[in-house]
Amino acid sequence: MKTHLKNGLSGSTLKLIALTSMLIDHTGAVVVLRMIRSRGGTTAMTMEAYQAFMSEYSWLVSLYDVMRLVGRLAFPLFCFLLIQGFLHTRHLGRYLQNLGLFALISEPCFDHALNGTWLEFSSQNVFFTLFLGLLTLVGLRQIEQRFPDLHYAAAWLLKALVTAVGCALAYGLRTDYAAYGVLCISLMYLFRAHRVRAFAVGCLPLLLLSSSQYFSFFALPLVYAYNGKRGISLKYIFYAFYPVHLLVLGFLAGIPGL
């Protein structure tokens, strides 16, 4: 991958931006949404009730919408950083282990924050998506290393099959972003020779989830500014931040009268 700007943004800076975006997004999805619902806002409102609600609480709905849009930056940036970690780590097994371990640790916090219960299986947290994405990258690299002389079309067919398996697992486990998330990771890796183009291509499947995902493309200047340097170590801060912030938001959302 080419380095565009010598004095640009380090990996740790991108990670802090992604964490901030995620915090804003989850605060909207957990706390602000709870505030909307506690004031009578539901998707089952009549038109008359909706108009009455919006006349008083349109600011709250707008706040929710803006926070969720800002949050669209987080996931593709995490995918980009996952690939950078995969390309440069000397301890792939430990990398996989940490993602898998924190996926399990984070799940009760994720369920409590978003669903109000400590354990349910309708959806799984984003660490599971990243874990499956990383496994998919392992498979793609195995094809590149074991079959360097394979015909171009055959190599891409094998890579498509590996990606399809990763997507199917994410879909079956109902992970956050599901198959679209694993496909995003796979595409960013496969087109990694030009990082900005790779990031843009990787974001395309996310548009199938929601039109709001177009905001993901606003992270393109950040990826362009990436200088290829690690920056300060935020590894365990990143891992711990995810379950801790969900735990805090879950308890905040449960405060009576919020």
Which features characterize this protein?
258 residues; mainly alpha; 10 helices; 0% strand; elongated
Structure report:
The chain has helices spanning 11-38, 47-70, 74-88, 92-115, 126-146, 152-173, 178-190, 195-203, 220-224, 235-253. By secondary structure, it is an all-alpha fold. Helix 7 runs antiparallel to helix 8 (195-203). The longest helix has 28 residues, at 11-38. The chain is elongated, with a radius of gyration of 20 Å. The model has no long low-confidence stretch (mean pLDDT 93).
State the helix count. 10
Q: Any low-confidence stretches, pLDDT <50, length ≥5? A: none
Strand percentage: under 5%
Q: Give the biggest beta sheet.
A: none
Terminal Cα span: 47 Å
Q: Helices and strands, in N-to-C order?
A: HHHHHHHHHH
User: What is the arithmetic mean of pLDDT?
Assistant: 93
Number of strands: 0
- The helix-and-strand class reads mainly alpha
Helix content: 55-70%
User: Tell me, what's the shape?
Assistant: elongated
Radius of gyration: 20 Å
What topology does this entry show?
Layout: H1 11-38, H2 47-70, H3 74-88, H4 92-115, H5 126-146, H6 152-173, H7 178-190, H8 195-203, H9 220-224, H10 235-253
Helix pairs in contact: 1-2, 1-3, 1-10, 3-5, 3-7, 4-5, 4-10, 5-6, 5-7, 6-7, 7-8
Summarize the structure.
The chain has 258 residues and is an all-alpha fold. Helix content is 70%, strand content 0%.
